[in-house]
Amino acid sequence: MSTPRVLMYTTASCPYCVRAEQLLHARGVAEIEFVRVDLEPDRRVEMMNRTGRRTVPQIYIGDTHVGGYDDLRALDVAGRLQPLLGHPAA
User: Fold this and answer.
1) Domain tally for the chain?
2) What band does 88 get if pLDDT is binned at 50, 70 and 90?
């Protein structure tokens, strides 16, 4: 089973975005589509409309809005991130 598309709304100076990227890579995600909302203001509006949130990162795995880094980490700790990524739970 292939990994679903992972999209992350991000900015240039976002330590939680870096942590989210590191966690996703550690869980076998090879490619992440980054949307730089600091460079593309229209995409920030898109992010806020899609998620109802203003902060980055905002992460999608496939069609599922995961949320930010804390949400991603909580999924991982609960053992629910790997299945969402299409991998067997560790």
Assistant:
1) 1
2) confident
